[in-house]
Backbone:
């Protein structure tokens, strides 16, 4: 039986690695990523499950699943040449991914599976910080956070709960860290670029800190998410993780420009 | 309606280096290979970001026009162009996040 030892949520600013090199110790994101990494190190995981939304790099409208399990033995990224950071090869964990797929289907989640992956910055930026040297295998779970209609947030809670039951049932002995990648409220490329829906970001932070995950999921309608900008569907990754943490409240949650950094501990 | 085709062109531009090179060097010939309406093609080749936005092109994909400085779109004019035809919104003034300068290689 495997064990969920830690959950975390972080954003994935595509330029954070570059900015840290230019002005080390100056960005809030660097300090917060370090804070999360310290907790990940303490938890000593053997494997990471990362919940993320692809940014039209691996998926496109020709075939775009609501939920998809990454089953590749390994994959490279970030693929976007405009993202200034090192390129990595990330190992997967095919047996666990396959078992999760089967478990999910039996639990009435009609998941998709991808045996080849092109990793985008949203998957790799958190791993650059939280999986140094890409030492641990990573099983990606993709939620569609970008192409309307988005999956329901309440369905993402259910997905997270299923994931938690799967971890308990999985025959391996791994210590598992579950990571959500994404912002709360941000517009990249839309007419409100630069504006941050701070009211929505603060509502999300407050509900997460209090452990009111169901309330958050009920309030996170697609209409509300879209009002906050075109990247705000990444919240679904946080909500999926919140579904997996049960009643546990975060150890800490720090906000930063429409995003949050949080850790949940289980031992 | 072939907004799908416009989205696809922008997706391939960012994800396929050979496609991108053709977009930069022979865009007209490349666009001939897609079934675009005249309105879509004109909006794309004139860098009319606002029109493309109103046609329903995904804004994250639209962003690739300025990332790759295609059809006269760049980081300095992108926001003004996408807001063309929109009613003034006070949130336009509230942006405190700089428009990023992307690094090409």
Residues:
């Amino acid at each position: 039986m495997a064990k969920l030892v830690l959950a975390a949520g972080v954003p994935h600013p595509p330029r954070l690695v570059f900015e840290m090199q230019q002005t080390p110790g100056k960005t809030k994101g660097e300090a917060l990523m370090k804070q999360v990494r310290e907790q990940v190190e303490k938890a000593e995981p053997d494997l990471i499950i990362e919940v993320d939304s692809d940014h039209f790099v691996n998926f496109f409208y020709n075939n775009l699943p609501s939920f998809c399990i990454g089953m590749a033995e390994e994959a490279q990224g970030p693929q976007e040449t405009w993202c200034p950071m090192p390129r990595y090869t990330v190992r997967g964990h095919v047996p666990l991914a396959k078992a999760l797929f089967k478990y999910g289907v039996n639990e009435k989640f009609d998941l998709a599976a991808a045996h080849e992956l092109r990793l985008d910055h949203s998957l790799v930026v958190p791993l650059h910080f939280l999986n140094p040297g890409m030492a641990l295998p990573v099983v990606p779970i993709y939620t569609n956070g970008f192409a309307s209609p988005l999956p329901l947030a309440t369905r993402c809670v259910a997905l997270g709960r299923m994931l938690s039951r799967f971890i308990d049932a999985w025959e391996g002995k791994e210590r598992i860290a579950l990571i959500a990648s994404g912002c709360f409220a941000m517009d990249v490329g839309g007419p409100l670029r630069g504006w941050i829906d701070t009211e929505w970001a603060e509502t999300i932070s407050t509900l997460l800190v209090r452990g009111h995950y169901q309330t958050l999921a009920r309030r996170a309608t697609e209409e509300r998410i879209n009002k906050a900008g075109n990247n705000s569907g990444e919240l679904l990754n946080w909500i999926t993780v919140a579904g997996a943490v049960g009643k546990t409240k975060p150890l800490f949650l720090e906000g930063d420009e429409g995003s949050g950094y949080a850790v949940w501990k289980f031992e | 309606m072939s907004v799908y085709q416009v989205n696809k062109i922008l997706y391939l531009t960012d994800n396929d280096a050979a496609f991108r090179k053709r977009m930069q060097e022979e865009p007209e010939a490349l666009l001939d290979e897609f079934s675009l309406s005249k309105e879509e093609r004109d909006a794309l080749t004139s860098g009319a970001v606002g029109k493309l936005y109103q046609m329903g092109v995904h804004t994250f994909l639209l962003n690739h026009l300025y990332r790759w400085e295609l059809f006269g779109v760049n980081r300095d004019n992108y926001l003004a162009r996408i807001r063309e035809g929109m009613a003034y919104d006070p949130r336009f003034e509230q942006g405190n996040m700089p428009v990023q300068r992307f690094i090409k290689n």
About this structure: Helices of chain B lie at 3-15, 17-25, 27-31, 38-45, 49-55, 59-62, 64-67, 78-82. The interface with chain A takes residues 4, 7-8, 11, 14-15, 17, 53, 58-63, 67, 79, 82-83, 86, 89, 91-92, 94-100, 102-105 of chain B (CB under 8 Å).
